[in-house]
Predict the structure of ABC transporter.
Amino acid sequence: MTAATPSAPATRAAGTRSWLALALLHTRFQLLESVRVPIAVIGNLLFPSLALLFFVVPQPAVAEHPLASVAAVAQLGTFAVMSACLFTLGAGVSEDRQLAFDPYVRTLPAGAGPRLAGRVVNAIVFCLGAQVPVVLIAVLLTAASTSPARFLGGIAMVPVVAVPFTLLGLAIGYAMSAKAAIAVVQAVLFPLAFAGGLFLPPEAFPSWLDALSQALPSRAARDLVVQVTTGIEGSAWALPVLLAWTALFAALAVLAYRRDEGRRFR
């Protein structure tokens, strides 16, 4: 008697389970690697919270106005997402590429998918964690108030707006050395945050900066999150702009990864 040959659906299901198991393993590994450097975790959590504490809470016109407070929290929460994605993936990937263990892992037959998935999930976990102190400060020290549905909608927007900045982080991480990546992340993050209305509301911008800002991914992400959490209608261009930048960053990430593969493993 011959053993029964597994059917194609069973084989695909087994392959999917193996892929997911490997992705979870890489996620766990990346999280452990991250928490072993506590200052990196604290830095991601601290800056958006301090910005809220020092620049929003002392302003009665914002802190004592429910909708204005929620909008400020949404803006700084979006900055926290950008920061976590760019530093975790941009700086993190470039540092990992310099380790001797990295070339070995990339030659394993599992392929790049599970490892990249682990990196992305790790970044999203940091993005969600960075929201906790921002929300706590807003609840305790401002008049921020929104409905449970809008609050949950804001949390659901975290992984959505993380997508383009995750791809940008991967593009930087695979294209540059560790020293260059850190400098580029800082040079990209803060100008995008300022021009995107994450520190100052776009209503305070001059007309030329407001027009320029609406073409940026940071402004598009900010407008979408503010609209979801406050109900205030944002720019109609926000979603198309974010999708366009996502496509561009995806192309850059794939190009950087393939270039790194060709340079290091040919």
Notes: The mean pLDDT is 85. Residues 19-265 form one domain. The CA atoms of residues 87 and 215 lie 23 Å apart. The two ends are 46 Å apart (CA to CA).
